[in-house]
Each structure stands twice: as C-alpha cells, then as structure tokens.
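Case study B.
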Amino acid sequence: MSDNKQTNRLTGGQIDTSRSLRFSFDGKNYAGHPGDTLASALLANNVRLMGRSFKYHRPRGVLGSGSEEPNALVELRSGARQEPNTRATTAELFDGLEAKSQNRFPSLKFDAMAINDRFSNFLTAGFYYKTFMWPAAFWEKLYEPIIRKAAGLGSLSLQDDPDEYDKGFLHCDLLIIGGGPAGLAAALRAGRAGAQVILADEDYVFGGRLNAETHEIGGETGPAWTAAAMAELDAMPNVRCMARTSVLGAFDHGIYSAVERVSDHLAVPSKGKPRQILWRIYSKRALVCAGAIERPIAFENNDRPGIMLASAMRAYANRWAVTAAPRVAVFTNNDDGHRTAVDLLAKGVKVTAVIDTRADAPRIADCELLAGAQVIDTAGRLGLNYVKIQQADGSERTIECGALGVSGGWNPNVHMTCHQRGRPVWNDAIAAFVPGDTGTPGMSVAGAAQGDFSTASALQTGSDKAAAALHDLGIDAPTIELPQAEDTPVNLQPFWYVKHGKGRAWLDQQNDVTVKDVKLAHQENFRSVEHLKRYTTLGMATDQGKTSNMGGLAIMAELAGKSIPEVGTTMFRPPYTPVPMGTMGGRARGKHFHPVRETPSHKYSTENNATFVEVGNWLRAQWFTKPGETHWRETVDREVNAVRGSVGVCDVTTLGKIDIQGTDAAQFLNKVYANAFAKLAVGKTRYGLMLREDGIAMDDGTTARLAEDQFVMTTTTANAVNVYRHLEFVRQCLFPDMDVQLISTTEAWAQYAVAGPNSRKLLQKIVDPEFDISNEGFEFMACREITVCGGLRARLFRISFSGELAYEIAVPTRYGDALFRKIMEAGQEFDVVPYGTEALGVMRIEKGHAAGNELNGTTTALNLGMGRMVSKKKDSIGSTLSEREGLNEPDALMLVGFKPVNNADKVTAGGHLMTKGTPKDAEHDQGYITSAAFSPSLNSSIGLGFLKDGGNRLGEVMILTTPLTGADVEVEVVSAHFVDPEGERLRA
Amino acid sequence: MIINHPLLGPRDAQEFTFLGDASLIDRPDWEAEDAAEKFYEYAYLRDNPAGLHRELWFHETGDRSWLVVTRNTLTHEITDVEMASDVARSKGRSK
Amino acid sequence: MHDLKPLTPLGSTTAQIDRFAGLTISECPDWALASLAARRGREQDTATAAQNLLGTALPDVAATATSGDFTAFWTGPQQWMIEAPHDSHEELATEVKSAVGDAASVTEQTDGWCRFDLEGTRCHDVLERLCNADTRAMTQGQVTRTRLEHLGCFLICRTKDAHFSVIGPRSSAGSIHHALTVAAASAI
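Model:
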C-alpha cells in the first residue's frame, strides 16, 4: 500500500491527477501521477533528501529539474535492470518504479561514511595525488579498494543486461536540437517550407521552458500553444519529431549522434522493442536550440536538500504542481529570480523573502524583499530549515524556509557548439558565454542557446535561423507569423559567490568541489583552466559541470586578477548526457557481436558432431568427434591417419578466391607475386608467394590458369579481404592502364579438399566419366572445368596441402551440401572421413608447409626457405626491398623442423631456441618455434620454427626453452618435411 | 566524416578503408640506378603535415574505387576527392 | 541431369518468408547472377554487346536497368551485375560471356550472394535501423552498395517506398536474416 500523502502537491500543472502511479524509494511506498518525474513525485511526497555526495557523503537533494542535475542520482529499478546514477529529474514516473538512493551505508538518513565530512581538510583538491603517492604497491592493494568503497556513485547489478538496444541512421536537411520556443518556431518554418526536418528534444514533452513558465504566448498558455504547434508538426510527413531523444555529439561534416529512450518510461520494454536507440544523423544543416541552464550562487552550506535553482523551483510549481516545501525563499542577483517568487505565491505557497544581492533590486513579487543582502549560511541536518542572511546594513538575521531557489543568471547551453573545438565568447550584457565560431560547418544557434533569453526573441531567432539554413540549401522558407510573446530584458548584476564565512561553499556538487578547492588549486599554481579542472575535478562528473563550471571560472578569474573571458573555458565533449554501454553496442552483442560466415558443409558438420572454430568470421569444423572418442587428440589423430591411410574430405571454401581476368591478367600476377606467373600454362596451377613492398611475406596460395585471360587466385582465409584490397590498389593506383578485372568468388563456390591415397578412386565416382582424371590425364597441379554427378558444372584442382595425393573440387555453393554428402556416400567403401582444420593443420606441419604462423608479418621469402622463388628477372611488389642487406644476412632465420630428443617431450609453439651451453637470454637467442603439433604419422611431437642459419644446422641438438611454463626440452633440428620429403605421394 | 565520392556523391567515411599518404602512387622504377634508395624512401618516408594532406581511401563497402582525398588534418575539411586511377594516370602511370 | 539437391542460403530446401505488419521479408534464392566488367578500351563494345543481350542499355552509375528476364545493376566503374531467373538462366555467366566475347570479363556470381526482398509500407522503418542509405530518397531503379550488419550489401529499390532487395554475401545469410528480422521486430 502506498502511503499517499502528497503534502507538497499544488494545483494545476501538466500532470494527470485523475490517475495515480505507485512507486518506491528506498523501500518506502509513495504515489505520484502520470507526467511526474521521480524528482517531482518525491518532492510532492515531501522527500527532499535524495542522495549522498560523492566524496563527503553529504546529504543532498535535487538542484535542477532536467538533465543538468548533478545531485539527485539514484539507482533505478532492481535485479538485472538496476541502473545506477539515474537522474531523478529526468526519470519519468511509471507504475511500480523502484528507486534507491546511492553512496550511503547503511541508510540514507544515517550514513556512516559521512565521517569523511569531518576529515574534509584532508580530502581537498589534489588529495589523491598528494596522499597515495607512496609506496606504489599500496595503491592497488590498499588505497584503491578503500577509496572505491568510500567514494563513488551507484552500483552495478553485475548481471547481464536483459534489454535490447538498437541503432539506426537518419537523414535530414535540418536537424533542430531542442524543442523549446526557438526549436518549435524553426521546425514550423522549415516544415511548412517542405524541408526534411528532424526535431529532437531530450524531454518527454516538447516546449522546453514553455512548460515551466506562466507567460502567455499568442494569448494561450505555453503548453496549449506547444500542443497546437506539435499537432501541426506531427501531421507533416517531412518532419520527424523525436521526443525523449538527446542529441549527444556533433561530429564532422554534419553527422550527429543521438540517443532515443524508447522504453525507459515503461516498467519493461515491450517484447522485441529496444530500450534505447542510438541514431547516427546525417544533416545538411543543424540548428542548436538547446536553451539555457540557470547557474547557482555559491555560499556556505549551499548544498542542503531543499536548496535548488530558482528556475527548477518554478518548473516544479508550474509544470508538476509541486513545491519542495510549504515555505520557500529566493536568493537572486537578477530580475528573473523574482519570477519564482511571483509564480509560487500565485500557487499559494508562502514565500518568506526574496534576497537580492543588488542594492537597487526592484520589487516584483508581493513578499518581503531584502535588497543588497546575501545568504551567508544555512541550517537543517537532512534538509533546509532556515537560511542566515547578511543584510545591506551588515546586520544578520535568519529566514525560515524549507526550500531556497537560487538564481545567479543563465548560461546559454553551448555544449553542442564546442564539440568541434568551437570556443564560446563572453557576452557582458548577460554575463555569460555565448557560442562563438562553433568550428562546425552547417551549424547555427538560436534562442536562449545564443543568449536571446526572452520567448519573443527565441521564436524570432529560431524562425530566422531556420530560414537562413535552408536558404543555404536552396530551399526558400517563407516568413511565418509568430505569436505574441513575453520579451523581458535581462537585468542582472554578476555575483558568483558569497565571500562571508570560513565554511565550505559548493561549486560542483556532483564531484564535491568547493570554492576553497579552487582557491587551493590557484595557491598551488594551477593557472590554466584545464589544469584547474583536472586537479580539482571541477566539471569532470557525469554532468560535465553544466551548473558548476561558470562559478569555478569566475573565482579563478578573480584570484588571477583577470576577466572571465581571459581565463577561458574548458572543452565540452560528447556525449552531452550519459549513455548506457548497451546503447553503444546496439544489436551487436553475444553471438551477434559480428556476422558469422557459414561454410557450405555447415549443416552436415552440425549433424555430424563437429566442433567449430572461428577463423575470422567463418565457423569452420575443427574436428568431427565420433561416438566413444573422449579427447580431441584421439579424434584428430584418427582423422589424420584416415587421410594418410585412405581418404578424407575437408571444407576449404573459406580460402579467399579471386577471379582475375583481362588481357593483362598474367602480367598483373607477375607484379603481385614474387615468383613468375606469366608463363603458367592454361590448365595448370602454381603456388604463389605475395610480398609486401618492404619485402616481407604478405600471403600465399595457389593460382590456377583457367584460360589465357582468366586466373583464379586463392588466398589464405584470414587475408582474403586484405589481399583483395591490395590487388585493387595495385590495379587502380599503380598500373591503371593494365587490362585486368577482379572480383571475389570466395563463397560462390563450395570447395572441398579430397585427400589421401584413395582420393582419385573416390572422385572417379563423382566426376563425370568424360573427364579423365587419371595420373596421366590430370597430373599434379592440373586444373580443369568439369562436370560432376551427371552434368553439374564444377572445377577440379589437383593440389595438396596435406602432402597426399589430393584434389580440390568446387561446385556452385547451393549444391555444396549435397556434394559433401555425395562424397561421403561414394567414399564409404574407402572409409572416407570428414576432417577438420586441426587435422588439416597437423598434416601441413608434418609436410612442412608454411601457414599464418610462419607468414607472421616479420618473415621474408628467404626465411621461409623460398628465397630463390623471388624472381630477379622481373619487377614485383617487394622484389627490390627484399634484396636489402639486412634481410639477407648469412645467418638469417630459416624455416626448419624440430623433434624432441626424448620422444615423451613436447615441442611448444612460442618457445625459443638456444644453443646448448649458452645463457638463456635474448642475446643468445637462436630462433623460435612457430607451429607445433602431435604427429600421429611419426608418433611424436613435432614443430616448425625459424632458426638462425637453420638450413646448415640439421642434426644439431638444441635447448627449446619456454619461459612461460619454465619447461626446457632438448630438440633436434630436422628437415621441415617430416612426411614424404621427396613428394612422391602427391604425384602418385 | 563525409567523403564526396566523384561518382557516388557524399558517402560516410565508415564505408571506406584508409591506407595513407597518396605518395604511395609514386612507386619508383625498379631498374633505376638508385632504385634501392628510392624504394626505401617510397616505403618508409612520409610527410606528416598539419594542414592539407592527400591520402588514399578505398571504398570497401561501396564501389571498390580507390580515391585520393585531400583533407585538412587540422579541421577535417575535405577540399578535393579524385579517382585514384585518374591521379595515377596524370602522374604518368600506365602498365 | 545431376541429382544434387540445392539448399537456400539459409540452409533449407524452401525459401524463408517472415511477415510483419506492413512488411514481408522473403529469402529469394531463385536468381542467377553474373558479373560483367568491360575490358580496357572495349567499353563501347561491351555496351553494345550487352544491350543486344539484355534488350536495354547497361545502367549508369548507381542505377539499374530491367528488360524481360534481365536486370542489370551498376556495381563499380565499368562493372555491372546481371540478374536473371535461376530456373531459365542457371548458366547465366556462360550466356553473358558468349554475348560479350572478349570485350568484357564475366564471372559467375550466383551463389556468392543471398537476396532478401523487403516489401511493404514499413520498408524504410526497418532499413533505417540497418544501413545508412537514405532509402526514403531512393527511387525505383536505384542501387547502392551499403554496409549492413558490418557487411557490404547491394540495396536495390525495386519500387519506391514499397520494395527493396538486400543482396549480401551468401555465407552470412543467417546473420543478415537475423539482422533484418530483429530490426523489423524492433521497428514495427
């Protein structure tokens, strides 16, 4: 049962009092109404204390009424959806909402950590830097855990986020950032002109301050005029009105990002619907109508719950029909602050005084006016009870109030204009920074965001700037009639902080930075505003100092004897408002983190107990476990033995395949491969080694000549994309007149290796009889276009990675599954096995073929034992630089094989080779192992590796040291070709 | 960033892969006396201007054209975009 | 006649169809594709020969051209993809090659790709979640290559505001289908 006593609820407002919403805060039940935020509902229920501060655990309430809020951060929801650091001022109330206060133990009203407040002298600016310098080891083990517990904000659920997130892309002529009077006027003008318009506002209702003020606009209330404008805009197909959408950042060339909170106002998102969407907006022009944010005045103990911005106090009364307390006061340096008193009086709230720093303050509200007075202290343990005043004549008195509205003037919301290194400029008339050159082509600013604070000027500049932006695009936007609106001039006397007293006056309430901290930083010679920021952490919290930066700058200027513009401002950076990590990820999470590529035999492999391995985005069968096999090695050994003993089949579709055609295709291959290709006969395949221009091996593979002017190149699986890009570079940028055309055919063909002494016999049952694939008719390295299974077009290559008699056969991918099954069926009499990448790897190591581990970005053709392949008779990419002296030292690393001396020992990849009797250090390093496997053919662990002058050291016994495991093993240097070194099998 | 593709118009830079300095088009003659020195310079030496920079971008998820983009490295302003094959030909590259 | 049974890109014997309010997403396996690239200096010969075969001129940059069974779409400078029904043009590459002779390079592309058609009034609402193409501005017969689910895909506007084809790499058909259907559930 909610205890429904909304004692601070007033009449009116944009809330639906006919319905009640139940919610809880720190386990206690309350009620509010549709239209409420969590903050307004808590205030209605007379809850002012909403959290504890970051460092000192001071009791804190709400300061603002929107996204600028530094204080009222709560943990929203529970379980896996628990979200820390949610601003109560922007959290829309829904039925069943649960919220908890943060950073307090054991409870909000009694927080043991408030002891920090007593030690505040030690916790001043630069505290971390000064205190935890030494000893270094203490930081991680002692200081950090304690600080992390004591200081901080909310906690994470530590569970997987159950919600879904999405991303998207939008296009428009004009992006309007902010839907207050300026933004609405801009949207109406641009929309009526037929331009493609996006109007985004972070709030759940449009209108901005029109919702929070009592001024009439066009003879109507603000909300009524807004509703009519929105009805018109919503009906325009060329205008997209996006509520609950914060524009986060301005990026290059008109790109903006925005987050749309689709489901945050619901208890749980509807099925399939995202919680939030991250939009990338391509705009031709953008108009910042982001309004302005009121700034506080700093004074002693100005952080008690109940002390808030005067504009927030007014918004709570007018929009949400709430007062923070039955008795309030106002502290201001300008006329606008008095409006709070006027509006609250109109709502029947008792206003005990308006305290104005100006000696000549005008009387605007019908209550006591204390002109030339200042608030010098406040009292009330967990919420404000009274304020202490120093009057114009120097006398002191107290004023009773449960809430104090503070106004130090307004700051244009320049955030978005700074993302592209724009620097705001000072405007003396409003004593605030306004956008200067935004450094953002296509961006303009209107309304309060550029310092035009009255409703009338917001409407006018919004309309004018929209027309100007569209004019740039060649769109004529006729003048629109604007409503009559308030046009009050700004009347203010700058006043930043009360100098009276020795206590703490808070500037940045989220990061607990005081006036004293700024003074201390100055005293310690931090003179740059950027240094001040980092040393004191002023403005570094999640609110980016929206309400605090100006105060800090003003004090710094005063101490340095400079003007505020001379001191300058710090940078604002995206995002404008905090964004959940999940939103940044969008749909890309879990197994959908990146797209998956499936091979043509995927279905067969799944049905036949394959274990898969990710190779790039490909899922490849690693091995096929048979019933009874208990260890992967057992499976892989069986697969290797089956291939070497009879026949096996392996899906090699993943290797990159590039179709290369044109009259200069052969010449082109001569350029990209280090070895010669021009004279390769039609119907033949050749191994090719591709170098980078610096002489390092880039990729390798076989290339088949299908016709005089057509080749099919294969690349390694991992490098397919890079090689294609490289070939296009060579074609377009280096030899633009060569007649050569490229296209990838990787996945157009299902390609299978059929390997083993019985592979020919098996394939003879598949390949149509008119094609002779006998040893004589189709010799080693032959290739041909054939038909299979009674007429299906196919390609056959006699190439071998395993070292056995072997073929690769390819059919159009849609028939790949059927062909794989057909091969398995036809091979039954030979006990054919499917084999995976692990057996493939074992066999290539046994055969001494280099692969990715050997082509590792540091090795040359010489290192790979292919030095002589680099043709010196022609120019190819990398040929000149591969001849460099440094790459051709007599003791250069050479690829050789390794076998343990003691058969029980293991060769470990990554281990380093040392000459026996020498120290095990880098200076004496002789080389390293790149690939290792257990060879069922040799019944021993074997390895490939690079050894200095390796070719001349066969038979030498060396120490293979693996510092990672501490294992030292004796290994013998052997030929890299463990199996069939003469290559008789593959020619059989 | 937006790259104004000579054929396709404005396209998001996310569709492109960046390679680097457009001087990579100027591949030296392998038969020149000083080929070794020239290739060394070609492979390793780059200017790093604060200002206008001509650079190679590949329209990877687009039409697979290599482009020469003239970009101000300070402001990201792109002042010119050309087909790399046209640039290569204009520099005398052929077969 | 061979006896190998084809599978669709999604690994089934029948094409997958997903229906949403205002949108149908269909796997379209019944199309053959062949790439066509003019040889250097033979651009005019290629254009003439292709026109004779297709019954329409090869399309200009970012455009498609349809005549009878054939649709051609632009893929790059002097490069096109020809599309025709698989049943009647299974060996499309051979057909195109014999038409253009040595004026152009032709490569079979049929099974390099998977095609999903989006039909219905909610096309844009789903596509805007997936790729940066401004589909609302696309008119019938326009094609663009765009990044969708991290993959380079062709996006063809068959009917303005009502019918689009996404043609993406076949091996990732499952991921593309997942992206399309999740985005549709999210947007509709």
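The longest strand of chain C covers residues 151-159. The remaining cases will be described in the next quarterly update.
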